[in-house]
Structures are given as C-alpha cells and as structure tokens.
Design goal:
Elements: H1 2-36, H2 39-46, H3 50-56, H4 60-80, H5 89-106, H6 108-120, H7 125-149, H8 158-178, H9 189-204
Helix pairs in contact: 1-2, 1-4, 1-6, 4-7, 5-8, 5-9, 7-8
Length: about 200
C-alpha cells in the first residue's frame, strides 16, 4: 500500500513539474521565438532546474513540440469535444464553423504561436506539422465523415468540401489577425459563415 501511494505521489509530482515547465516555456517561446528561446530562462520561469527540464524533454525541440501538442489538443477539444457531429446540416455546420472561427479570432495567444510556427516552418517543418496532425487532420476527418453521411447534401467530394469550409475560416484568421490585414481585407465573421452555409444549402437543392 505504501509503495503504491508513494508511486502515485511521484507521478503527481512529475505531472506537476511537466505542467510548470510547459507553462514556463510558453512566454519564453512567444517572447523570443523558437530559435531565440533560452532553456535557462525557461527553467527560471518554471521554478525548476535545467536538468529537470531535460529529464522530461530531450531538448528544446522536444519541449516546443510538447507545448504545441498541448495547445493543439486543447483547441481541438474545445471545438469538437468528444462527440460526433449529428443533426441537421444547416444547424450543425453553422454552429461548428461559427465556434471554430470565433475561437480562432479571440485566442490571441494561439495566434502568437502560429506566427512563431510560421516563422520557423522553413527551418523546422516538423514543428508546423504538429498542428496539422493534432487539429487539421482529425478535424477534417470528422467533418468529412459527417458530410458523407448526409446524403441529402449531395456533395460529390466531402473531403474537398472540408478544404473549402475550413480553408475559408483559417484564411480569414491568417489574413486579418496573424498577418494584420484586417483593415485592408475587412470581412465580418457572420458574413463568411452565412456564405459558407449558403454554399452547403445550394448543394442540397
């Protein structure tokens, strides 16, 4: 019994340290980018030794990957949850697209990380691929399966339609927020959602 409790406490302490390291690294990467981030400063921010960081994460790349995976999974869960898409397409898709777009527009921290990832993607493409594995791929599969199941929509290529739907809202966020083009390319969220919903409805006619 004592050994089990000691083991549980050790795991809890380890999980707590990992979370502190991830939180400590967050502002460091945002402030200095991936290349300029210092593991010494991460250790100070996390309140642990640098040796402790390396005991949990092999190197800076491993730490950054873990952080992006954590952020990506939280974003995916906040949008899709644990449930499959069910219900009338006009309602389900409108709610899903509106929720995804609103969260992407309001989450300035996640936008900041996207800037870091885009900036580092040429030298470290595997860092950018994390977002696609953790958000884009599973999200696209869920929506594609839903579109394919709704025969009344008469969509010949559900996978391609997902690119149209998700690509449109991602482009809006990148153009207006990440690339600071909102004043140059103004577009209200509701107008885009209305246009995408109209497109889906036209498929069913």
């Amino acid at each position: 019994m004592t050994r089990i409790k000691a083991s549980e406490i050790e795991r809890e302490n380890s999980s707590d340290k990992i979370e502190k390291i991830l939180q400590g690294s967050k502002q460091e990467f945002l402030a200095h980018g991936y290349t300029g981030a210092s593991m010494d400063r991460v250790a100070v921010a996390a309140g642990v030794s640098k040796a402790t960081i390396y005991s949990h994460f092999q190197d800076k790349e491993g730490l950054f990957k873990a952080l992006i995976e954590q952020l990506a999974r939280k974003r995916f869960e906040s949008i899709f949850g644990a449930q499959t898409l069910e219900g009338e397409p006009n309602i389900v898709l409108r709610q899903l697209l509106a929720k995804a777009l609103t969260q992407m527009l309001e989450d300035k921290e996640f936008q900041a990380f996207q800037r870091v990832i885009i900036g580092e993607s040429a030298r470290f493409p595997e860092l950018a691929q994390i977002l696609f594995r953790c958000i884009a791929k599973p999200g696209s599969e869920i929506i594609s399966q839903y579109l394919a199941s709704r025969l009344e929509l008469n969509i010949p290529d559900p996978e391609a339609m997902v690119w149209v739907l998700m690509g449109s809202i991602v482009h809006l966020v990148i153009a207006q927020e990440i690339m600071h083009g909102k004043e140059i390319l103004p577009m209200e969220s509701d107008r885009l959602i209305n246009a995408l919903t109209h497109l889906i409805n036209k498929c069913a006619e």
